[in-house]
Structure formats: structure tokens, C-alpha cells
Design goal:
42% of the residues lie in helices and 15% in strands. The chain is α/β, with parallel strands linked by helices. The protein folds into 2 domains: 2-154 and 339-359, Rossmann fold; 166-337, Glycogen Phosphorylase B (Rossmann fold, 3-Layer(aba) Sandwich), CATH 3.40.50.2000. The longest helix is centred in the C-terminal third of the chain and has 20 residues, at 340-359. 44% of the residues are buried.
Length: 360
């Protein structure tokens, strides 16, 4: 049984769909407990028996009753919780209460108060972290090393093939033919660090006069970022492009993807960009260094260090041959280390180990 609370099919929910499909191909029967009217509820039917139910977050005190009923009726061999929003608290408790092993996937690298962390994770037989960075956070919170296994998130490499349609791209976003384009793909929230790129944009424009920057994503900072863009006189240089469903078409047309996040569990958008052969500049935060290899497929900078960010971006915009080399190497890294099959096999190995321990 898999529990996923996300409403939209990106981030963790997309990883769950990849996992369901891969497990089904390997002969595993899946039950998916998810939110009513969610994207994954509509798309998971070929790979799982879908049980959609209301989910209202941590304060939904009826959720454990609904979840317990689903576990009791289904009697799965294992319960795998993929989300937060209350599922991470109640999923393990409900599974343990009915004598079924529970597994939690942790996708974020924010630290928790140690007593709360030990209480929450104590109900699970095992924990999967999507990066070594997250695993280190969990170990620092007192979780025993033998209870945490790293299984990287995956990207559909075939979906993100290098197919550049620059004429469409430049018409879609009003970008001049000679303009280098930087993309930032992240929620518009403080920890993603958009402000650090805006701080250095005037200096970048002075060196690269045709430069354009596209912010992809939505979030509570949208109005604040737009005000900052307008106040700095960058309206013709920086565009809030919103959430897009056609990123596989957009990404290959970018010259550089920048991710100046202060915190990041792994950074699936970086995987997608690398799969498209785009060079990367990102902060050395969370699991990002597991994707961005310094001097190999991109550059890493200290979180919040605008000077380092400017130098890294400038060096790649000024050297197209180096940028191309980084992009080519990045695609090879994704193919080798972040495939869907690797992610599915990693999770299946965790399942097998848990079941063996339970039998012993």
C-alpha cells in the first residue's frame, strides 16, 4: 500500500507514479491511497487499485480512521508512506497498530526537533531518503543508521530527450534570437533563493546585454518577486513564466538552469534539466551536490553567496563550449545514476530487506 497526499502530478507524486508503474511491471500488486480529485488518482489506475479519500492535512483527525479502515480491508504486506501533511505521522501509527511493517520516504531536508523526529519515525520499520543529504539530516536527529536507506529520485530520460525548437521557444516567451536564456524552475517560496539571482541580474545584464531570465513555477512570493523586478527596472529582462506542463519542450532551449536554493532535498528540476543536456549552476545545499558535480556538469556555490553565483553564471555564459561539455556530461550522469529502473529497484530492495527482517 502506498500513501500519497499530493494533488498535482509533479515532485513526490510523480515519483510515486513512476514507482507504481515499475513495481507493477515486476509483478507487485499495489494499492494507492490518495487524495480525491488528485492527478495521481486519475493516472494510477493501470498500475494500482486506487482508493481515493478526503485528506485535509495534519489536523484531519478522521484521516487515521479512514486510513486504518483501508489497511484493515486491504491487508497489504507493507505500507509505504510517500508524503507529509499528516500522512507521515499517521501512516506509521496505523500500520504498526495492525501489525504491518511501515516505510516512510523523506523528501525534504529541513531539520526537526529531535524528540518530535524520534517520535514520528519511531513508528516506522524503515525510512527511505531521496538523497544522502537528507539521510545525514535524519542521522543528526538521532535516527539509527541501519534504519535509513538512500534511494535517489528518478527522471524519465526518454521524456526529456534533447529536441530543441528554438523558433517556437523564442516566439512563446518573446526572447530575441541573440539572447542567452537562464531558467529557474522552482516554487516561488523564500527557500528557493530567487532573490539572490535578482540581486546580481543588473550586473549580469551589464556584461550580457541581451540576457533573459525565466522563473518557472508558482507560489506565495509571486507578487513580491514581480514588485522587485519592476522596482529594479528588470521588466524586459526577467519574466515570471508560471507553472508549465510543457517543460520537456522548454528545457532544451535554455542556455543555463540556475537553482540558488537555501534548502533542497534533491532537486528533481535539476535532474530534468540535466537530462536535456542543460548545464547547471546551483547552491551547495541539501542533496543538490549529488546531482551537480563541480566542474563536471555544472558549478556549485555557497547558499546565499551572490558573488559566487555571479561568477559561476558569467563563466558559463561566456564560454559556450564549456557549457555544452557540462550539458553533455550531465545527461550521461542522469542516465547512469537517476533512471526510473534504478529508483524502482532501490525501493524494491528496501521492501525485501524489511520483509526478511520481519520474518526473522
Amino acid at each position: 500500500m502506498h500513501i500519497e497526499t499530493g494533488r498535482y502530478l509533479y515532485g513526490g507524486a510523480l515519483q510515486v507514479l513512476f514507482l507504481l508503474e515499475g513495481l507493477r511491471r515486476r509483478g507487485i500488486d499495489n494499492v494507492l491511497v490518495c487524495t480525491r480529485d488528485s492527478d495521481i488518482a486519475r493516472q494510477a489506475h493501470p498500475f494500482a487499485h486506487v482508493r481515493a479519500m478526503p485528506m485535509y492535512g495534519e489536523m484531519d483527525l478522521l484521516f487515521p480512521l479512514r486510513l486504518s479502515a483501508a489497511i484493515r480491508e486491504t491487508q497489504p504486506d507493507l505500507v509505504h508512506v510517500h508524503s507529509r501533511r499528516g500522512a507521515d505521522i499517521w501512516g506509521g501509527v496505523c500500520a504498526r497498530f495492525q501489525g504491518i511493517p511501515g516505510l516512510l520516504t523523506r523528501r525534504v531536508d529541513n531539520r526537526e526537533w529531535h524528540p518530535i523526529a524520534r517520535l514520528k519515525y519511531g513508528s516506522y520499520d524503515g525510512i527511505v531518503s531521496i538523497s544522502q543529504g537528507i539521510r545525514q539530516v535524519l542521522l543528526g536527529e538521532g535516527i539509527a543508521p541501519d534504519r535509513v536507506r538512500c534511494v535517489h529520485s528518478a527522471v524519465d530520460v526518454e521524456k526529456y530527450r534533447i529536441q530543441r525548437d528554438r523558433e517556437w521557444f523564442r516566439g512563446e516567451f518573446g526572447v530575441p534570437c541573440t539572447a542567452p536564456v537562464i531558467g529557474v524552475i522552482a516554487q516561488l517560496i523564500p527557500r528557493k533563493g530567487h532573490r539572490y539571482l535578482l540581486d546580481i541580474t543588473p550586473r549580469l545584464v551589464s556584461r550580457f546585454p541581451d540576457l533573459r531570465i525565466l522563473f518557472f513555477g508558482k507560489g506565495p512570493l509571486q507578487n513580491e518577486l514581480q514588485d522587485s523586478i519592476t522596482r529594479r527596472g528588470l521588466g524586459e529582462r526577467v519574466q515570471l513564466a508560471g507553472f508549465r506542463n510543457d517543460m520537456p519542450r522548454i528545457l532544451p532551449c535554455l542556455d543555463l538552469v540556475v537553482h540558488p536554493a537555501l534548502m533542497e532535498g534533491l532537486g528533481v528540476s535539476l535532474l530534468q534539466a540535466a537530462a536535456c543536456g542543460v548545464p547547471l549552476v546551483a547552491a551547495r545545499a541539501g542533496g543538490i551536490p549529488e546531482i551537480v558535480r563541480q566542474g563536471e556538469n555544472g558549478y556549485l556555490v555557497e547558499p546565499g553567496n551572490s558573488r559566487e553565483l555571479e561568477q559561476a553564471i558569467s563563466s558559463l555564459l561566456a564560454d559556450p563550449d564549456l557549457a555544452h561539455s557540462f550539458g553533455s556530461q550531465g545527461r550521461l550522469i542522469v542516465q547512469r545514476e537517476f533512471s526510473i529502473d534504478s529508483m524502482v529497484d532501490g525501493n524494491l530492495s528496501v521492501y525485501d530487506n524489511m520483509m526478511q527482517r520481519r520474518r526473522r
